[in-house]
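DM from R.C. (forwarded with permission)

"hey, sorry to bug you on a friday — could you get me a structure for this? deadline for the figure draft is monday and I only need the backbone to look sensible"
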Amino acid sequence: MAVKKSELYSSIWSSCDELRGSMDASRYKDYVLVLLFIKYISDKYADLPFPPIKIPKGATFKDMVAMKGKPDIGDQINKKIIAKLVEANQQLSQADFPDFNDPVNLGDDKERVERLTNLIAIFENKALDFSKNRAENDDILGDAYEYLMCNFAVDSGKSKGQFYTPAEVSRVIAQVLDIRRAKTTPDTTIYDPTCGSGSLLLRVADEARTKVTINGQERDAATCGLARMNMILHNHPEAAIEQGNTLLSPKFKAVDGGLQSFDYVVANPPFSDKAWSSGGLDAANDAFKRFDSFGIPPAKQGDYAYLLHIVRSLKSTGRGACILPHGVLFRGNAEAEIRRNLIRKGYIKGIIGLPANLFFGTGIPACIVVLDKKEAHARKGIFMIDASSGFMKDGPKNRLRARDIHKVVETFTHATEAPKYSRMVGLDEIEKNDFNLNIPRYIDSQQEEDIQDIEGHLKGGIPVRDIDALGDYWAVCPNLRKTLFKPLRAGYVSLAVDKAKLKPTIYDHKEFASFIAEMAAHFATWRGKQAKALRALGVDMHPKEVIAKLSEDILVHYQDKPLIDKYAVYQHVMDYWQTTMQDDCYLIAADGWKAETYRVLVKVEGKKGKPDKMVDKGWACDLLPKDLIVAAYFAEDQEAIRSMTAEMEAAAARCAEIEEEQSGDEGFFAVFDKINKAEVSARAKEIKNDKDAKEELAVLKEWLEQNEAETELKKKIKAAEAALDDKAYKKYPKLTEGEIKTLVVDQKWLATLDRAIHGELDRISQSLTQRVKELAERYKATMPELTQAVEDYEAKVVAHLKKMGFAW
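My reply, with the result:
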């Protein structure tokens, strides 16, 4: 049975992290990722006659497994595995791999043997057997590599996490370049001069509809090795990844010795690199003429050095995107001159302002500068987006949500102007601002202030201006406004309903109820269309294509619908995909529509030196959870259990109530050190013939009756649950494929999305209710009423003081 993708990744990470010990994450990652790489190429290429990566005899992952426990395991991995792979493959270098015999990183002798043995064991997981190319184009192992790199970047901290560009930012760059709509061929070239681990390059390549030629350069040797392996893991073994300082010694050159030019160039260079010109780079006499037409960047600010390298590396029709700190948009002196020249050339097509704290190496906000040489001479403006407020918190960092990514890309692609978010800024306006590109100069993204109305506070009444601001609601429900408010005086209204009845008044209003019904029918239309498509999925599907189509369809379906935010609906789909549906689709792609059950075994740590043991926690089914089977086939059994549970809880509540009533100093339970059946029974037996204790005996008998009822019901519930569990378990083998599809598609996937999207409609009602309540409360008391209240309280205080003998 296939393992869930998310569980596979998290189990690999937790296992690796557990073995890390005190080793720095930035160094430990090299060992883990190399093992994953060797596992992948062994599975995929070992038996192929003409593989893109040659696997010499004796250099497979199986050979590495045979080395487990041997005292010279580290030395053997270096000499018999890595050295042979490097010798057989020109695209690999010895510098790409860490030293597996290093006592500093891996410990001495026994510790090193144990650590490497345990690490290798992690990747012996049968779920990591990719010799059969399942779910083609969905690079499960390549994605695992990305997953591990992301986690290592988080753990590596501020100074060492720069090797990885967050996947969400990479997606934005890849999509704003619009490579998907271009007529690409294998000769189409993409290039990253500071490629890190290669994730940004891969995102761009994945956006293209055909294979493309990938080129990248990375200064750090170890990170360069990660990039080469990342390319191979993502089925791009032909990618050219070179090691070296791009500014000082670019590796990709044309026949004439100048810089090679590319169709697409992307980069996330080190922010404000203070050492960009060190090592002998003479910018004034640059052999590649990168600074001739624009100016030389400041010695201690390297941002424009990388940007100008990109400009020089683009073909005359090329497009590029570079992540840079916001300072490049407004800093003066030499950078202002470079910026002016770039703008006048028309090379800058757009600027996207990102939220702060997205990147692992820094917390400062950054922007994406989008370059486009095609028709640069005719460019009349620069399209700007302020996306700084679109993110979610994710631990110590911020992260772009799927909705934030899609909104940025869609807005940029169509050059859609939106208040407080995006606009096309003419070159004449930019020139008037002395070529300053600071986004807040052109887009005021500040939320409008919620103005306090002085007359409303003095005389009472809600300003009509505030009611008008809720115009989106009144456009859908024009008569709801008349129901909620009544005229007070010119420019002011008062509530026409009690504040406590606001929510039901809104929700039950004919127009709002009609809107809710219309939105329910609207979702039902989409649901019916998708149900048919989802039932047609099979082992030949590509999960990434499934979610791409599903998510785009929901966006189109909710385009221009009133009150409901299409991106909020889109986010619900993407969230559910991430948490559940993605795993389900990978299970179906691997095994088909099979509802297979399995035992849930949990490792329990042994106490007092005893070995750990596995505890059976019952059975489960990932694709088709037990609760769906119960709801569909055994609803009466479940209802009977709920009914008994309610009775049991009532009995327990009555016992607790009696205990509370009788636990005081004079209560009948005050004599008990512990309240339990034995103690209460003993006391009841003791006083059963005492005529003066009739009342106490009655209380004790009631407690015992309720306690007995609770105990008996617990037994019945346990037996009923066991019987229901057995019925559900035996039902799985009898399910037809059609029944499984109906339960998974209709009762699991689409029912969950239905509930989530209906929650958006509840949010609409709650938002209106909350705002109206807020306004009503704000202007509830007039100034004269408040003044009178203060005087009344003052008079009461004075009177009390006089009674106490104080006078003044």
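R.C.: lifesaver. Confidence is low (pLDDT under 50) at residues 133-138.
me: no worries. The two ends are 89 Å apart (CA to CA).
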